[in-house]
Amino acid sequence: MSEVNVLIVEDEPMVAEDIAEALNNIDFKVSAVVYTEKAALEELLQNTPDIAILDINLKNGKEGIQIAEEINRRFHIPFVYLTAYSDKQTLEMAQHTQPAGYLVKPFTEKNLFATLQLALLNHGRRLKDNFSLPALDKINTKLTAPISDREYELLAKIFEGLTTKQMAEQLFIAASTVKTHIRNIYLKLDVINRSGAIARIRELMLR
Questions:
Q1: In angstroms, rounded to a whole number, what is the distance separating the alpha carbons of residues 187 and 13?
Q2: Contact in structure between 160 and 86 (CB atoms under 8 Å)
Q3: What is this structure's pTM?
Q4: Which end of the chain is more exposed for a tag (fewer CB within 10 A), N or C?
């Protein structure tokens, strides 16, 4: 669970496969690929991802927008729209749900990476809401299992919205080491993803 986990909601299997391949190439992990609104909501309940990619138009209409509304109500993770439709009416409907990004098919890996990276960064900023990462000793007074100095460094990178690869490059350690540290952070904070980690730190500091 230490990588950035992405849920893909796309009703065309070939397109979904292309998205999954592109994500793997740019250091993101596909948590699941689903084709319907019902399957998307079930996946969100069982395995909340870090971010979701939603096709606006599924088989029964603009279900992607309905999924987005449910995400805003219940799951509070960032999402981006990926769609072949870019007409004014569709854009207005999409903007009403306040997506973290919007991509029109066909997409490039470069654009996909930039959109997801910015979405995670902006979402992290909204969650923090002028809330900075507290000092390590203050965090550890609230935890049963203390966070180590190295884990604290990685926690700071989570607050910055960096990917696993970027963390590894900045700290001059292997990506596998980053994943191990982040997994330990999740265990100590009792969360399953990055948004949860940020929210948990804020909750602890309010006690």
A1: 34
A2: no
A3: 0.70
A4: C
- Hey, how many other C-beta atoms are within 10 angstroms of the C-beta on 180? 15
Q: What is the rounded average pLDDT for all residues in the chain?
A: 88
- Tell me which amino acid residue 160 is: E
Cβ-count burial of 92 within 10 angstroms (0-12 exposed, 13-18 middle, 19+ buried)?
A: exposed
Q: What is the pLDDT of residues 21-77, one digit of tens each?
A: 999 998 899 999 999 999 999 999 888 898 999 998 887 777 899 999 999 888 888
Give the tens place of pLDDT for each residue, 118-142.
Answer: 888 877 666 655 567 889 999 999 9
Q: What is the pLDDT of residue 131?
A: 65
Looking only at the bridges linking them, the beta strands covering 51-54 and 29-34 are: unpaired
Quick one: 151 and 199 in the same domain? yes
Pair (108, 17) in one structural domain: yes
Rounded distance between C-alpha atoms, residue 18 and residue 190, angstroms: 33
The DSSP string of 1-13 is --S-EEEEE-S-H
Q: Which domain holds residue 48?
A: 5-127
Euclidean distance between CA atoms 83 and 11, whole angstroms: 11
